[in-house]
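Example record used in the benchmark description.
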Amino acid sequence: MGNHTPRDKCESMNVLLIGDIFGNPGRNAARKLLPGLKKKHQADFVIVNCENAAHGKGITDTTARDIFEAGADVLTGGNHIFAQRGCDDYIEKEHRLVRPINFPPGTIGRGSAVYNSEAGFQIAVINACGRVFMGNYDDPFRTVDREVERLRKITPLIFLDFHAEATSEKVAMGWYLDGRVTAVVGTHTHIPTADECILDQGTAYITDLGMTGPYDSVIGVDKDIILDSILTMRHTKFEVAQPRRVRICGVLVTADPLTGRATSIKRVREDLPDPTN
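Model output (C-alpha cells):
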C-alpha cells in the first residue's frame, strides 16, 4: 500500500491502542485528549475501538469522522458495530474501519487490513469477537490463525483487537498467538485491567484496554437506570451517562518494526477536567 519507505535506523515504533469509545462523552475525550497523547508518547500509529461510539451502541459516518479527526488511524469494532441503522454503506466503504473477522461469511466490511504508519512500516490490524457469553460467531481462534498466516507474508507487525466477554478466552487467545503477532488487546468489558505484559515469545498482551467515556456510570450507561433495572426487574431504555468523570484509556505498545516483537506495553489513562468543579 503506497510508496512509503521505512525511516532510516528506526529501531522501534510506538502504537497507541485506545479502548471502547462510549457515546458523545467518549468522543469528546478523544477529541480533547488523543492529540496530546499522540504527541506525548510519540505514537506512530493509533488504533481505536469505536463500536459504542454512536449513542453507546454502533457507529455512524459522523461519529467515525469525529474519532478520525481526533487522530485515529484505524477503527476497530465488535458485536454492536452494525447497531445503527444506515451504517452498512459506510462500513463497507471505509477501509480504515475493521469489523470482527469471524462474523458469518458474506458480512459486509473487512475483518483485517494492512496500513502504512507514519514511520513507513506496514501494520496489519485484525478485529475478532469472542464466543463465550457473546454469540454464535465463527471460531475466533481458527479464523484468526488463518488470517495471521496470510498477513505474516506481508508484515510482522500485526495487532489483534479481541472483543470478548470472558477473561479466560482473551488470555487463551494471547497465548495462542504468542510470538506470531505483535499484540493481543482485549476490548468489550469497558474495565481496564492491570495485567499488561510481554508474553514469552514477544507478544504484548492486556485483557482489556478499558473504556473511553463516562466512568461515573455502569460501563458507560446512566447508573440510576441500571440500578433501577436491577432492583425492580423492569426494563428501561439505556441512556449514556451524563459526563462528569470522563477519561480515555488504552495502552502504548513499543515494538521492533523488523521482527514484529513487542518490547514494552504500558497502560495509558488520562482524565478530562471535571466540568462541575
